[in-house]
## 1
Amino acid sequence: MIYNMEFETMPREALEAIQLRRLQATVERVFANVPFYRKKFAEANVTPNDIRSIQDLRRLPFTTKQDLRDNYPFGMFAVPMDHVVRIHASSGTTGKPTVVGYTARDIKTWAELMARALMAGGADRGDIIHNAYGYGLFTGGLGVHYGAELLGASVIPVSGGNTRRQVMIMKDFGPTIITSTPSYSLHLAEVAEEMGVSFKDLKFKYGIFGAEPWSETMRNEIEKKLNLVAVDIYGLSEVMGPGVAIECKEAKNGLHVFEDHFIPEIIDPETLEPLPFGQRGELVFTTITKEAFPVIRYRTRDICSLNPEPCICGRTHLRMSRVTGRSDDMLIIRGVNVFPSQIESVLMDIDGVTPHYQLVVDRDGTLDILTVRVEVSEGMFSDEVKRLQSMERTISKNIKELLGVSAKVKLVEPKGIARSEGKAVRVIDNRKL
Amino acid sequence: MLVEQISVFLENKSGRLSEVTAILTEASVNIRALALADTSDFGVLRLIVDNKDKAIGALKDNGFTVGKTQVLAVEVEDRPGGLNSIMEILKANKINVEYMYAFVRHTGKNAVMIFRFDNIAVATEVLNSKGVAILNEAQLNAL
């Protein structure tokens, strides 16, 4: 089933004509309304009049996470605040989040794209959707929610956490679709088993999982343990939120990017040159319909490739491969974005703590475990064990408060952290995806 | 009156303690007393040595985190109730003991205990007023 047959199956030529028109309008708008873009365009010696074909997109400058941070909180908004009806935020690298805004029309567009995504993943009117993405500043919960309502499905806004209650709801309400992070779905399966609830007796047909990288192996495990068909969804708040791209349940092979709203590119993260289809590189997005928070050539740092081959589902939109890595050092821990520099600033803020640290990520069963190893310097050392233990607790508490992620803090000897070529190895990711 | 103890941060992994003793041996430092406090992840080794500057230098050169703390070396009668009489004095004066451990050598017929107090000045005054003998570094080194 296809939610918007006209746009999702549009012949490429017509689609590209629409893309060009929308791109031109977007470029004109950001040039007129966002001082940041006017300045960047001037530096790149390009004006809106230079965008005469889709290929001219390459003449436009890139936008980075740092640019968004520099314009915190509302500097990148392209409409006056009285047109903004919603604000979301995602975790940033220095404690300050990245703030995004939506006009009423943006919210409608987002709901439509999420409705398209849910339908591509197997949902329809009459389904009951167990939405276990977090509701709040994070775009996951509300993004799925609005799409589900537009689709006409019954949505259970269960959000994250309180897993035993979630199992009870799954048993009693009989939801047919689940939306969550892939790791949380496996956690749900474990807890259900502990409670003597079998997914075989539940009514789930499809699961739509995203907000963190996962693999085919994990898909097989989820499909087996939750007794459903699992598809991958992609999105990021800077571009919109969930519903930027979705895998169709028919092919389960790459995620269709909603190209009538976003133009994807793959670039070499070193040379910044665009790469041909099929080649792996950094994913870059330009939004072409967003009003409040348009982005021009936003570097996602996610590594994947684009596939132009026609799909058996009938959609004509390009498919992006699974995201297989990052071109920066960002980690995703239980759906939360964590940059090593954020941990560093937490450590620096604690008296006596030197920022020699290392992040170790393990997967214990289905949950990510973050361990922060901190070297004990003279400034923080004490002959009293209780002081050292309270230091560990303080660091852990501050990380939880600022980053929203639980971490186990472990004090280690100086030089306890391996250095390669003099540079400390900041991240050890032991998760097998 | 005060004695300086050195403390060393150790990760809980095999061979770390022997590394410390090997470094001190190499530096010809004699360990006079020691105590190890540990958690599941790390330990703190507290040492009274005959040459603390040399010990600290050698340990730091080998990458250990080393601290210095002032403690009291208190003479305790080596008989049933000997330590208890000291503890009674401390309790009566509401003095907190952070930790304590025994010194290896005796002074004649008395044992020596190393005490770490949160308020060492008050503890010294109280013990002195009760006639409890407190040893200085020179006296300890002479044992």
## 2
Amino acid sequence: MESRRDVFQAIADPTRRAILTLLAGQALTPGAIAEDFHSSRQTISKHIQILTECKLVEQEFNGREIYYHINPKKMKEVADFIEPFRKMWDARFNKLESVMKKHKNK
Amino acid sequence: MEQKTKVNAEDGKQELVITREFDLPVELLFKAYAEPELVEEWMSNPYSTTKMLKLESKKQGGYQLESKDAQGKVVFRANGVIHEFVPNQKITRTFEMENTPFGVQLEIYEFKKLTDDTSRLNMHVIYESVAQRDEVLKLPFAQGICMAHNRIEEILSKLKMTR
């Protein structure tokens, strides 16, 4: 429960969502994750730390390497709670945008 | 793909913030909130038609709207008072769903120009209590509004395929 706020802060950031998408495909080492981004390794490592703290991402040790993978249970929790509300607004705003684009071209 | 609409609802707070960037000049974005025919158009969808019974777009103006389903039955009515109306910048208003236990919410809309063709809407909503906010957040479940796939579900389904 204590971590719910952190979870929403975590997914509010586009880089962190990109990391989650990346990890959805496979478990990766911090180095492999950082290679996918223009940001510095330290920045990415900070993002991973936040994702780990709120349990969206978990560590596993494989020999000397640390691999990160997604925690599907936590991800599901986030999706269930707020997504329908967000999607409702997203659909509304998409409509607004298309209505006003038409209006502009009239 | 980056999510265009973001909702920030921190745990234990009686407020939330919705932000969205639009491929529209700020003037057009603002107009979508100021002119009744336009509000009606974008608020309507295949399942319900929205009508502005009243919209006085000015300080101390009021508004009332209702939505009808395809059979013409009124399914939703809401009203409020406009406290601040600054063209292309800001609208502060109250919002109340009639005949519901959700109380009155205060809504602060901030319209920002990003470029000549893009703009951002920041919608800050303050509820009477934390409990009321959380009830409103859960509303789309109750109404069964489940639209397009969302990002996290996509990630989850991708995960299922690969494991």
